[in-house]
Design goal:
Layout (H helix, E strand, L loop, with lengths): L8 E4 L5 H12 L3 E6 L12 E3 L5 H15 L4 E4 L14 H27 L3 E7 L12 H23 L3 E9 L5 H9 L4 H9 L9 H12 L10 E4 L7
Parallel strand pairs: 1-2, 1-4, 2-3, 4-5, 5-6, 6-7
């Protein structure tokens, strides 16, 4: 079963790599109009009108990005909040500056995206927002206290905003998506921060049922579902894509 996203106008953050980059490709292949946003634009996309520079912690840039999507396509159908960072370290070793940096990108960035996407969507009364949380927003992960805090915040903030959208009499849906470890540059970054190598990557793989990390397509399949009308009665929910990891 494929999700019908043809001609939807979609803004995707974290679009330069990983899940965000794959989401942009898949959405375009399916006929969606996409504004790909990231704080850094890939060299291969320099000068491309499809990419828009966005620091998700800067509200003025969010206002500009949302206006750009609306002006280009005349509507704002979906937001996919993929941008996120991770800083590994036990709580006793994590600096306040690093904790605040993780919260700023992962929580404040998601909040600002919802705030300004909602304002645009309310003009037409419908839309879909998908916030990338994590299995770390459901179950604790040692060495990732800041990241867990941020992704747990995304989970509950999503529910609150979904209820606000319903109370406003709209058909705007807001859901969170919770991937397990996924084959992305973020996993490479985790391995690097922990000073590991092939052995650590194998441990990550064996920690998941089935013995493999998720692929970006595993996660993007769920994104496509959540922004399409196939999920029209899914709202304020968390969709866990982890092959049973959090069921253990």
């Amino acid at each position: 079963m494929t999700s019908n996203v043809e001609k939807l106008a979609v803004l995707v953050t974290g679009a330069a790599s990983g899940i965000g980059a794959r989401a942009v490709t898949r959405l375009k292949q399916s006929g969606a109009d996409v504004l790909a946003c990231d704080i850094s634009i890939p060299q291969s996309q320099a000068g491309s009108s499809d990419f828009f520079k966005l620091d998700v912690t800067a509200e003025v840039q969010w206002i500009a990005a949302c206006a750009e999507l609306t002006q280009r396509y005349g509507r704002f159908d979906a937001l996919v909040n993929c941008a996120g960072i991770i800083v590994m370290g036990n709580a006793v070793d994590t600096s306040l500056a690093d904790f605040r940096r993780v919260m700023s990108v992962n929580v404040e960035g998601t909040f600002l995206g919802m705030k300004h996407a909602m304002r645009a969507m309310l003009q037409r009364g419908h839309g879909s927002i998908v916030n990338l949380s994590s299995t770390a927003g459901i179950a604790g992960a040692p060495g990732a206290s800041a990241y867990c805090a941020s992704k747990g915040a995304v989970r509950l903030m999503t529910k609150a905003v979904a209820l606000e959208a319903i109370a406003a009499g709209s058909r705007i849906r807001v859901n969170s998506l919770h991937p397990a470890l996924t084959e992305t540059p973020m996993v490479d970054n985790i391995v690097r921060q922990l000073g590991g190598g092939a052995d650590l990557r194998r441990q990550m793989q064996t920690s998941l049922p089935g013995g493999r990390l998720a692929t970006t397509d595993d996660i993007v399949d769920a994104i496509m579902f959540l922004i399409s009308d196939q999920s029209k009665f899914v709202n304020g929910s968390e969709l866990v894509v982890d092959n049973g990891f959090t069921a253990q």
